[in-house]
């Protein structure tokens, strides 16, 4: 049976992990490769690396890092942050990433999804959507959440799917960082019409939140950062609890 | 020595990295004389069937593959191209295994089938040695090979489909062993066992 996926997210700046990773037993908490290996050993199903430097000069640092990760890690991983052209996508995929996550660039140039899907296949094109509730709708934000595009998030998700995205990384900006749970209503609304997998992001604070995202929100995968980085929840414990809740999970040990 | 077939539809870096982790000597090539030197062939693939076949035809690698007696491991799209034809763009495959690929019905569940899944049934075959129905492998695909006479292991998503197929020297896996953690390397080692 297809398992629900647990995906730790690592923010990368200048080739190093950021946001005060606090992990016991790590020689170098800033080393993305070591952290990735740790998560992989703990049973993470996939990894997401978001490059928050995203300046042109640092592009090479990121590509080098992707090569290193690909050599060490034997589970799928996605790379995102500032990717804006098919050339850049090719660079990241050829370095060994399995998928790229596209965010601001596809809002500015939606055709990039069609081009990338045609060239590399939909399976490696993740559309990242940052949605914020304004009045009675969800609106798409870009540029790290700083710019309101005025686009309706549900319509946008429909559009990226039609254009050939293979997966949606859906972040609720209202819930992100709160640790109060995922935006279940948003997840439900999106799952009413979408036919591609949805990764729920923003708000994970407990195991129960992850269970709710899957059981009530119908998420295919759950992404979180700080609860894993600060070892508040071990991935193996989370999976145990999901299994108790009769959610299919991949057990590695 | 293993040769990874280099064409425009391969996830070559991932397969090469997996072999590096296993300390297995390998080359990535699209040249027939180099393929002729190899003990075993890995035929990876992601993306669409039609451009992939076109890309193979450019160097007559399709002809080479059809006639080779060397062990060949097809991964994902590579495995799918073993079959005769596909609903995908009505393209022709290599035809070393009879059958036609179908597309998952996206009105029944999400497509692609993306993520970790288990086997439903496994029969005895060296490629599946030490693997059980409990193990999870990583899949990403929208088309599938129905269960047929050459199915070694089946998986279920919407339909029962072939997860591992084998006919003579051709072995194909729908999942990505190079991305399937420890059990993935176990499967690759099984393949290397009967190459060496």
UniProtKB/TrEMBL annotation, chain A:
Coiled coil: none annotated. The active site is at residues 11, 130. Keywords: Amino-acid biosynthesis, Cytoplasm, Histidine biosynthesis, Lyase. Pathway: Amino-acid biosynthesis; L-histidine biosynthesis; L-histidine from 5-phospho-alpha-D-ribose 1-diphosphate: step 5/9. GO terms for biological process: L-histidine biosynthetic process. Its EC number is 4.3.2.10. IGPS catalyzes the conversion of PRFAR and glutamine to IGP, AICAR and glutamate. The HisF subunit catalyzes the cyclization activity that produces IGP and AICAR from PRFAR using the ammonia provided by the HisH subunit. Belongs to the HisA/HisF family. This is Imidazole glycerol phosphate synthase subunit HisF. It comes from Fodinibius salipaludis.
TrEMBL record, chain B:
Its EC number is 4.3.2.10, 3.5.1.2. One of its GO terms (biological process) is L-histidine biosynthetic process. Pathway: Amino-acid biosynthesis; L-histidine biosynthesis; L-histidine from 5-phospho-alpha-D-ribose 1-diphosphate: step 5/9. One of its GO terms (cellular component) is cytoplasm. The active site is at 76 (nucleophile), 176, 178. Gene3D superfamilies: 3.40.50.880. It comes from the Bacteria. It catalyses: L-glutamine + H2O = L-glutamate + NH4(+); 5-[(5-phospho-1-deoxy-D-ribulos-1-ylimino)methylamino]-1-(5-phospho-beta-D-ribosyl)imidazole-4-carboxamide + L-glutamine = D-erythro-1-(imidazol-4-yl)glycerol 3-phosphate + 5-amino-1-(5-phospho-beta-D-ribosyl)imidazole-4-carboxamide + L-glutamate + H(+). GO terms for molecular function: glutaminase activity; imidazoleglycerol-phosphate synthase activity; lyase activity. CDD domains: GATase1_IGP_Synthase (cd01748). Residues 18-191 form the Glutamine amidotransferase domain. It is found in: Cytoplasm. The keyword Hydrolase applies. Keywords: Amino-acid biosynthesis, Cytoplasm, Glutamine amidotransferase, Histidine biosynthesis, Hydrolase, Lyase. Heterodimer of HisH and HisF. IGPS catalyzes the conversion of PRFAR and glutamine to IGP, AICAR and glutamate. The HisH subunit catalyzes the hydrolysis of glutamine to glutamate and ammonia as part of the synthesis of IGP and AICAR. The resulting ammonia molecule is channeled to the active site of HisF. This is Imidazole glycerol phosphate synthase subunit HisH. The lineage of its organism: Bacteria, Pseudomonadati, Balneolota, Balneolia, Balneolales. The gene is hisH.
């Amino acid at each position: 049976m297809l398992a629900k996926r647990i995906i730790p997210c690592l923010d990368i700046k200048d080739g190093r992990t950021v946001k005060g990773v606090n992990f016991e037993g790590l020689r170098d908490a800033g080393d993305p490769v070591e952290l990735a290996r740790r998560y992989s050993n703990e049973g993470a199903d996939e990894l997401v690396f978001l490059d928050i430097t995203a300046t042109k000069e640092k592009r090479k640092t990121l590509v080098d890092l992707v090569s290193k990760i690909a050599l060490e890690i034997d589970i799928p991983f996605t790379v995102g942050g500032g990717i804006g052209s098919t050339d850049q996508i090719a660079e990241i995929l050829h370095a060994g990433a399995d998928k790229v996550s596209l965010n601001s660039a596809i809002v500015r140039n939606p055709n990039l999804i069609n081009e990338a899907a045609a060239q590399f296949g939909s399976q490696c094109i993740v559309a990242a959507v940052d949605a914020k509730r304004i009045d009675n709708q969800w609106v798409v934000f870009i540029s790290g959440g700083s710019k309101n595009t005025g686009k309706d998030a549900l319509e946008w998700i429909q559009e990226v799917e039609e254009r050939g995205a293979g997966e949606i990384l859906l972040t609720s900006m209202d819930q992100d960082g709160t640790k109060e749970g995922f935006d279940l209503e948003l997840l439900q609304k999106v799952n009413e019409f979408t036919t591609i997998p949805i990764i729920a992001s923003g708000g994970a604070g407990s195991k129960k939140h992850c269970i709710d995202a899957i059981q009530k929100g119908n998420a295919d995968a759950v992404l979180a950062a700080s609860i894993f980085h600060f070892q508040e929840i071990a991935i193996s414990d989370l999976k145990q609890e999901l299994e108790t809740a009769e959610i299919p999970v991949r057990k590695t040990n | 020595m293993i040769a990874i077939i280099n064409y425009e539809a391969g996830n070559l870096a991932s397969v090469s990295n997996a072999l590096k982790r296993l300390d297995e000597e390998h080359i990535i090539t699209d040249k027939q004389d180099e393929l002729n030197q190899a003990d075993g062939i890995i035929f990876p693939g992601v993306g669409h069937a039609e451009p992939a076949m076109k890309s193979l035809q450019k160097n007559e690698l399709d002809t080479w593959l059809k006639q080779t007696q060397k062990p060949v491991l097809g991964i994902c799209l590579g495995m799918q191209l073993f079959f005769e034809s596909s609903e995908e763009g009505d393209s022709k495959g290599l035809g070393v295994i009879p059958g036609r690929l179908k597309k998952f019905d996206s009105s029944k569940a999400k497509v692609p089938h993306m993520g970790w899944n288990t086997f439903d049934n496994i029969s005895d075959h060296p490629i599946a040695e030490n693997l059980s129905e409990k193990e999870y492998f990583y899949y990403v695909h929208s088309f599938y090979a129905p269960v047929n006479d050459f199915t070694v292991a089946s998986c279920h998503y919407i339909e029962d489909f072939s997860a591992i197929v084998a006919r003579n020297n051709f072995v194909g896996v729908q999942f990505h062993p190079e991305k399937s953690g420890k059990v993935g390397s176990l499967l690759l080692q099984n393949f290397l066992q009967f190459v060496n």
